[in-house]
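Problem 12. The chain below contains 221 residues. Write out its predicted structure in token notation.
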Amino acid sequence: MYRDKVLAYAAGREIFTTAEIAGALEIPPSERAKFNTELKRMCDKDLLVRFKKGVYSIRRAQGRKPSTADATFMNFLYVDGDEGYVSGPDFMNSIGVRVKAGEGLVRDRRGRKPKGEMREPAVADHLVISNNVSRNTVRCGTRLRKPPATIDQGNLSYFQMLDCIRDVDRYAEDPKAARERILDEIGRRKLDWLKLLAIAAKYYRKKTVNRLLSYIESMYL
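Solution.
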């Protein structure tokens, strides 16, 4: 019933949680148990890899399982989604924003973009903002960052979307098209605009606040 939709969603993501995919596919609460059973069957058929409870990865060609970098990525991203969130190009891709070529692809092991001849191997570049991080660091290709405030279910989506708005110029291939996708996602999540503005004013720079205001203005002009 859900197999094709799950595979289509998973194709563009290294790892995803049950909560993320259920939300993206708009699975009603009454169907969640049936949906979870379908995910289990897909794992039994080797279509998906179950990383840990509530966390899955699509099984690639040759049966590739999540890498060490992927493992680190998920260890800092709480399964229920209220202790951390994905940010940067990974998140932008997940909501349909086209990312500039070369962004979010590789970094050296200190988290820097390699210049010239590389002296050490590049690693996949994920970015996770997590309450579980005591200091900003890079671990197994995952950039780990402390949030500006404690993340919980009440503010997670607000910080995630504001990060996206802040980073538009840095990552988005087409900022105008990105704005439309971001506005669609804010609407889909039913976020409160006043709360979004309040959090932006308290924790983000003026440039991000002004960009948010311009986004709001664009909806009425």
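Discussion. The radius of gyration is 18 Å. Students who got a different answer should revisit the alignment rule from Section 12.3.
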